[in-house]
Each structure stands twice: as C-alpha cells, then as structure tokens.
Specification:
Elements (H helix, E strand, L loop, with lengths): L1 H16 L5 E3 L5 E6 L1 E6 L4 E6 L20 E5 L4 H17 L3 E9 L2 E9 L2
Antiparallel strand pairs: 1-2, 2-6, 3-4, 4-5, 6-7
Length: 124
C-alpha cells in the first residue's frame, strides 16, 4: 500500500512539474505567452476556437500587458478574423492534444473575454 501511494505521488509530482501558467509582459506592445500542454480544444458555431491551458492564468497577469479578460483558462482564435491561420492553428493544437506534445502560443488583446492567440508553435 505504501509503495502504491509513493508511486501515485511520484507520478502526480511529475505531471504537476510540467504545468505552466501563462505569463504576460508589457514589452512589445503587451502580450501574454503560454508554453505547455493542450488539455482541450473547443469550436463553437459562433466561429470561436478555444485552446485550454494545463494551468489557468493568474487573474492579475493580463493587466501587465494592458489586457482585460473575463476568462483565464483558455486562449481564443476567431475563425473569421483569419480563416487560414485558424485552420493552421487548429491542426497544430489538435496535433499537440493528440500526441501530448507541448505548444507555445502568444496572445494579444481579447476575443470573447479570452486572450486572443496570434501565433502557435509545436515543441519537441
């Protein structure tokens, strides 16, 4: 029993160590950055894609970039703003979700109360 508990706690600590909340900065006109796993992808009929972070952004973080948000658990891409980017974004995020690979995204402004993602890259 003690060995099982130890193994469970070891696994929990390993997964928790990979969690990384988004951070924001005032430099370059203000932006937020997230590097971590994609926990969920969501697309609604209003044309908004949401990519959920493994750890929520602290509520005070967006003000460092001059951004006002209502939601801190996901970043957004509005499909109609740039349909080509939205397709590439979704395929990259879906690849990360299905393989467990990390992504990095940068976010500026807000869309639907979520930080607006304007770039993404897949990490090894």
């Amino acid at each position: 029993m003690i060995i099982r508990l130890f193994l469970f706690l070891s696994i929990f600590v390993c997964f928790s160590a990979n969690a990384s909340a988004p951070v924001c900065s005032a430099s370059h006109g203000g932006y937020c950055h997230y590097s971590g796993t994609v926990t969920n992808l969501y697309v609604n009929s209003g044309g908004l894609i949401l990519m959920y972070f493994d750890t929520a952004m602290p509520s005070g973080e967006p003000s460092k970039a001059g951004i006002s948000l209502n939601y801190y658990t996901a970043g957004s891409v509005k499909i109609s703003d740039n349909p080509d980017f939205a397709k590439l974004f979704y395929s990259t995020a879906l690849t990360a979700l299905s393989t467990g690979k990390k992504v990095s995204v940068q976010m500026r402004g807000n869309e639907g109360g979520y930080p607006n993602i304007d770039r993404i890259w897949l990490e090894q």
